[in-house]
Specification:
With 406 residues, this protein is mostly helical. Helices cover 72% and strands 5% of the residues. The protein has helices spanning 3-28, 37-62, 66-85, 88-105, 108-133, 142-159, 163-182, 190-210, 212-215, 248-270, 273-283, 285-290, 295-321, 331-344, 349-365, 373-387, and strands at 29-30, 33-34, 221-222, 228-233, 239-244, 323-324. Strands 1-2 form a two-stranded antiparallel sheet. The protein has a two-stranded antiparallel ribbon with strand order 3-6. β1 and β2 form a beta hairpin. Residues 399-406 have low confidence and may be disordered.
Length: 406
């Protein structure tokens, strides 16, 4: 046994001890008294899995798995060559076609999950502008989601306005909120910026929760109309009939259109002069300012543009649920969206989409392991951050400092 391998086994032992010390209070302290068997059973399963993984890693390090690794590496290299030969537009067309036919071949539960994923894709891409492109840590992003949802809810309930008319209004109100929140924070950096944005997000939630005359407080707003559109009818000649898009199939295509619009908009922003200026600010704000970049205006624009897509997602959320309340816009939601951006890859559109799939769809896939799915999910995230710290699909244009190159 080498020195490195002994360190790995010692670290495994210490980690398993700490894991049991955390696990037993959660499962062993019950109203019936102290129990040791349930937590011990779970701990043994995790210990066995960890033992197998560490053993495989040790064998790989020693070269004992070369007979498997070399063919796998060769096959993966060939797959990557084939992938690069196919034009990107072909892959986009295939994915778009599959997205169009998805609701026609699946059940209600699958459509509901995918709609949730696409809502978070819009949120993740909006936050990606603030964090991934401009490099501004925002822990209160979900506030813009709430502003968009309540904007459409109030306009729909009190003025009976159409969803399509309210959609740009919700985006504008969210952008204004982004400017209001972003303006006092622009001269802050790092931890101070994160704390202030977290505070503003909580302020918005508390306003929604306590302004009874406008938002109905914790009771929320009921009776929100779903999207609708005029459709040609032939029952009594050629007429235009107004139909409500209440079914999941219709709602799926509405959010799909919003996702496509968001992807195109974020992509164009990323490869525009504004996007390159945001990246300059992210890499080194002082150097960007010395080179003539108006950092104040562009950081404010990043907050506003990111808020726009949060507002669009919020308006759709209100139309889909037909009810909104402050409990839907807590800090946990902000943390979830932030995790999607970091896990998928900051500044990367495909990475954010993969991050949303991982954080929303995978827990649903493991719903059968109800007691252990969040444990497995947390462990998978830890492993991901260890072995792929830049994310599932990192952006191609991410700067790297000299000390990070080793």
């Amino acid at each position: 046994m080498t020195r490195g391998s002994s360190k790995a086994w010692i670290a495994l032992g210490v980690g398993l001890v700490w894991f049991y010390l955390i696990l037993w209070p959660l499962m062993g302290i019950t109203p019936e008294g102290l129990q040791f068997i349930p937590s011990l059973v779970v701990w043994l399963k995790v210990a066995a899995a960890a033992f197998v993984l560490v053993s495989l890693n040790q064998l790989r390090t020693a070269g004992a798995l070369a007979f498997i690794g070399k063919p796998t590496t060769a096959a993966w290299t060939e797959i990557r060559k084939i992938y690069k030969k196919v034009p990107v537009r072909v892959w986009i067309s295939v994915v778009f076609f599959l997205a169009l036919v998805f609701p026609l071949t699946t059940g209600r539960y699958e459509k509901d999950v995918v709609i949730n994923v696409m809502i978070y894709v819009c949120l993740g891409l909006g936050l990606n502008i603030v964090i991934g492109l401009a490099g501004l840590l925002d822990l209160g992003y979900i506030a813009f989601y709430g502003v968009g949802a309540y904007t459409y809810a109030l306009l729909s309930v009190h003025f009976q306005l159409s969803f399509w008319l309210c959609l740009p209004v919700a985006a504008v109100f969210a952008a204004v909120s982004g400017c209001i929140i972003g303006y006092p924070t622009l001269r802050m950096r790092g931890d101070y910026l994160a704390i202030v944005t977290l505070g503003f997000g909580e302020i918005v939630r508390l306003i929604l929760n306590n302004w009874m005359s406008l938002t109905n407080g914790p009771n929320g707003i009921l009776g929100i109309q779903p999207p609708g559109l005029y459709w040609p009818g032939f029952s009594s000649g050629l007429t235009l009939e107004y139909i409500w898009l209440k079914k999941l199939n219709y709602l799926y295509y509405v959010i799909l259109a919003l996702v496509v619009f968001t992807i195109i908009a974020v992509h164009r922003l990323n490869y525009s002069r504004i996007g390159r200026a945001w990246e300059a600010i992210r890499e080194d704000e002082t150097a960007a300012e010395l080179m003539g970049v108006n950092t104040f205006t562009l950081k404010l624009l990043a907050y506003a543009m990111g808020a726009v897509f949060g507002g669009l997602a919020g308006a759709f959320f209100a139309a889909r649920m037909r009810f909104v309340s402050p409990e839907s816009f807590t800090f946990l939601e902000s943390a979830m969206v932030l995790s999607m951006v970091i896990l998928g890859g900051m500044g990367s559109i495909p990475g954010v989409i993969l991050g949303a799939l991982a954080l929303i769809a995978l827990p649903e896939a493991f719903r059968g392991f109800e007691l252990y799915r969040m444990l497995a999910f947390g462990g998978a995230m830890v492993l991901m951050m260890i072995f792929r710290p830049s994310g599932f699909w990192p952006a191609k244009r991410m700067g790297q400092r000299s000390e990070e190159r080793g």
